[in-house]
Write a structure and sequence with these properties.
The relative contact order is 0.21. The chain has two helices and five strands; from the N terminus they run αβββαββ. The model has no long low-confidence stretch (mean pLDDT about 95). It has a five-stranded antiparallel β-sheet, covered by helices on one side. With about 120 residues, it is α+β, with helices and mostly antiparallel strands. It binds guanosine-5'-monophosphate.
Length: about 120
């Protein structure tokens, strides 16, 4: 895992040091296309404030977490998938988290089983 003081890849994207396909930006978050999409629609909602994992969030982040959920709905509408999308947060390496800067995945464009996308 990266050192606590290292910039996360998402901080470098937010700073503009690494290019990304950005579809939304506001004062609290950005939304970008995932570089390695796992579904026809796969975007990442990333808070500008780095919280490594969801379990690292506390009550001081409550408004930010609410903002991210409302933004997910707004972006899903914007992308035309408001009626069928999955919102995923991987928390911890064993759960598949690879970037330790909290982010939400919006996945859509296929049919979902309980475990994941089936087509
Ligand atoms: P995690 O596995 O941590 O939940 O999700 C990290 C996500 O970030 C992955 O889906 C991965 O494809 C995406 N990702 C990693 N590096 C980059 C990058 O440089 N640019 C973009 N757009 N997505 C990235």
């Amino acid at each position: 895992m990266a050192e606590e003081n290292d910039l996360s890849i998402f901080e470098r994207i937010i700073a503009g040091d690494i290019p990304s396909e950005k579809i939304h930006e506001d004062e609290l978050a950005i939304v970008i296309q995932d570089i390695n999409p796992q579904a026809p629609t796969h975007v990442l909602l990333i808070p500008k404030l780095k919280i490594p994992r969801l379990v690292d969030a506390d009550v001081s982040h409550q408004a930010l977490l609410g903002h991210l959920l409302l933004l997910a709905g707004k972006v899903a509408r914007q992308l035309g998938c408001a009626d069928a999308f999955r919102l995923v947060i991987n928390n911890g390496a064993d759960a598949g988290q690879t970037v330790f800067h909290l982010h939400l995945h919006i996945l859509a464009g296929g049919r979902f089983s309980e475990g994941g996308l089936v087509n």
